[in-house]
Amino acid sequence: MTRKISSRFSGGFLSGETFETYLKRQARRVEVALRRHAPREMPSDAQIGKAMRYSLLAGGKRLRPVLTLAAAEAVGGSSDSVLPFACAIELVHTYSLIHDDLPAMDDDDLRRGRPTSHVVFGEAVAILAGDGLLTDAFAICTNSSNRRRVPPALVLEFTNVLAEAAGYKGMIRGQALDLAAEGKRLTRPELERLHLCKTGALIAASVEGGAVLCGAPSAQRKALANYGRLIGLAFQIQDDVLDLTADEKTLGKTAKSDLAEKKMTFPALLGVEGSRKAARDTAERAVASLKKFDRRADPLRALARYVVERGH
Amino acid sequence: MTRKISSRFSGGFLSGETFETYLKRQARRVEVALRRHAPREMPSDAQIGKAMRYSLLAGGKRLRPVLTLAAAEAVGGSSDSVLPFACAIELVHTYSLIHDDLPAMDDDDLRRGRPTSHVVFGEAVAILAGDGLLTDAFAICTNSSNRRRVPPALVLEFTNVLAEAAGYKGMIRGQALDLAAEGKRLTRPELERLHLCKTGALIAASVEGGAVLCGAPSAQRKALANYGRLIGLAFQIQDDVLDLTADEKTLGKTAKSDLAEKKMTFPALLGVEGSRKAARDTAERAVASLKKFDRRADPLRALARYVVERGH
What we know:
2 copies of one chain form a homodimer. With 312 residues, the first copy, chain A, is an all-alpha fold.
């Protein structure tokens, strides 16, 4: 009987599973759950429900919710229980993409290989669809059905971690630093701070959040949050490299948009090769912060390396 | 000793207090707490912190948070404990004003007697300031300091009521119905549904939320939510009347903006006098839904009448 432990509680890779298969398996669970949590379209809603679904169900890697599941498993928890919360994080991520793409912000036309929300639905609907996704993320977190699986105090703690990461001190400040930096030359610490807020905060919350929901001790939470910030940074460095070197089809969004928008990037500071090395080093520091975790953290280790190897 | 009950636990009007004095007293408490909860400005934030404070601390009646305090007292709870949550509601309200005023939405230049956020700070910052206020509202609700005063399960329940009211099924849908209605003639039920979502949902959540945080029984919650929806509707009818009949100085925002924007209004359906009567009738229905409450609900009763008498 002891050999027949349910896979959802053992965590980590299944026997013989590659990282790619693991990623697909977890992303598929997220996809199914997202369809359940996406808003039902309502009549006379000026297409807002449709716009919310359009952006939320546009595919994508589902990196953040997969991180939440992987973190829950890494601390020995149940990834089933954290699935709705993982979806809430993807709603927050999707809202941030819709608002970042707006004409008043980065003015991007293409995202995940499709026209951006405001191109399809107009600005007013895009703003509201973003607002709706952000708000509904908190409705999902605090929904009474979750409280059967996770104690209220842990749900509250998770929701606070998410709100702080998405709020003025996190993503909002990151976007602000980004706006303020337009056309300016930043130092490496300034550029890192920008991305630690803009991308790192939500990724860190995705990882830490999984551990929080499972009641993990503070040392594990801190190690995972640190891991999250570092892979967030590595991800961004690699993103900057890909923006310069990949074509639009591979990227699924407008290529060389950073140059066009006169954005400060890591390649501008460190060159392409120097940036690739910085991404790899940052990913290895992320892996190092997991040294006290057992093999159930192997997917997180593999993910750190995947982040800097994608797109080649 | 029994005569020396602390005023904050007795609730309702203080001895000899008029409704105007009550409103000022509660609004002042809210104002002090809001200053504590408003974001501290941070360097290189592209003025986003400043923009958040600009809109949040622009005065206003603080009707929603005062309702939360009044509801807590009406069910015999402590309005001190609910003060941070009342502030969170005002953050959500302020976010909705900033986004509603954007050029892509209602394109309003004046609000609470001052230029709107996007006029002062530009569109990008206004969008982000709204996003920041909305997100920080949930950070305030779930902050660990609250859990000392209110049990986690009740905090969660409140946060869910707030998120549902602000989300796709509430305010977002209201704004959507508003966009979809532009230039169209609506029936009275359609116009009421629009405003029950757009204004009523958050007002109802403000009242119900105060009761939820104090652990009030379901019948009291329902009665208060119903009261909230009705005064929200009465408030909107009166707003439509004032938009037609008052001047800009009294209004603090652009007068006759409904006509300019070809918005469907209650006066267009019922005439000015008919609308005034509808507002009064709706307010009386709100008062009637409080019949099982004792004198501690007197401020709520007075408030329902105040809502339809203001501006004369």
